[in-house]
Amino acid sequence: MEAVDQLASAGTFRVVKEPLAFLRVLEWLFAIFAFATCGGYSGGLRLSVDCANKSESDLNIDIAFAYPFRLHEVNFDAPTCEGKRRETLSLIGDFSSSAEFFVTIAVFAFLYSLAATVVYIFFQNKYRENNRGPLIDFIVTVVFSFLWLVGSSAWAKGLSDVKIATDPEEVLLLMSACKQQSNKCLPVRSPVMSSLNTSVVFGFLNFILWAGNIWFVFKETGWHSSGQRHPPDTMEKQSSSYNQGGYNQDSYGPAGGYNQPGSYGQVGEYGQSQSYGQSGPTSFANQI
Asked: What is the pTM of this model?
């Protein structure tokens, strides 16, 4: 307990209440659900072939498949309804690429979300002391958003193909015995795909979370802070340039060009009549 208390005191857990860290926690949880529902899947179907000769019938043909859905490697035996001979068939398709790509994205997203949350809690000062941490976080968030969109779309298409390839009606068409009208071929049990459908939903939910978190990560970068500082600086420069110019000075005041006392208020060229006025009477008086 002491170690836990020390760890809790060292970390700043209040950042989890902020949108940036809170969304990281949700991304961590949703990534677990995404790769668990897809990577842990295993299912199967059951078919029955009732031959005209009852002794050759097989009413319980079980076909099992699982992640990563290399269905062409799934083999099963089916009666031919021609004596005791049986044929070995396999399902059609290889959908491992889209499934493995989806699970890989989920695993790496899980690891990064966990690491980012730890950094936010215990190394927040180092994360914000320079712009490198937020920039890396921003780039990784954008990349994962794109990967989640691509991976979820690809897996949704792959899942649709898996459903078609494992449809009991489609599998019955592969059997030679079912091509004869005298034999009765029926599906007994279809595969349950609910968990795979859930994985696709979690995939797109992860895309929404990561795409929505881009804005909150961007606010931590220097790009956002510089964008916030630029408009006031520009306005200050513009206001200073107008204040220093001739239009916003006290041009009509005491120091202006039109109301300068040096032009009309001071004793100017035409206003120096005082000198002429004083010299005239003095000279005249002297002459008298």
From this structure: 0.72
Write out the two tokens for 86.
């049986």
3-state secondary structure at position 58: strand
CA gap 192, 42 in Å, rounded:
9
Six-digit token string for 188 = 């007994």
- Angstrom distance (rounded) from CA 107 to CA 14: 27
Count of residues for the chain?
288
Measured CA distances, 109 to 9, 88, 97 (Å): 28, 41, 18
Q: What is the pLDDT of residues 167-198, one digit of tens each?
A: 999 999 999 999 988 899 999 999 999 999 99
Q: Can you tell me the distance from the alpha carbon of 171 to that of 193, in angstroms, rounded to the nearest whole number? A: 17
What does the pLDDT read at residue 18? 80
Query: What gap in Å lies between CA 89 and CA 176, rounded to an integer?
Result: 10
What is the rounded distance in angstroms from the CA atom of residue 68 to the CA atom of residue 238?
64
Give me 96's structure tokens: 């491992």
Residue 90 forms beta bridges with which residues? 75
Buried b (16+ CB within 10 A) or exposed e, 232-250: eeeeeeeeeeeeeeeeeee
Give me the residue label for tokens 């180092």. Answer: 126
Q: Which helix (H) or strand (E) holds 212?
A: helix 194-218
Strands 58-66 and 42-50: what pairing? Answer: antiparallel
Cβ distance 188 to 46 under 8 Å? yes
Q: How far apart are CA 125 and CA 135, in angstroms?
A: 15
Q: List the beta bridge partners of residue 48.
A: 186
User: Each residue of 194-251: pLDDT tens digit?
Assistant: 999 999 999 999 999 999 999 988 888 866 555 554 444 444 444 444 444 444 444 4
Q: Where are the beta strands (DSSP E) in 40-103?
A: 42-50, 58-66, 75-79, 86-90
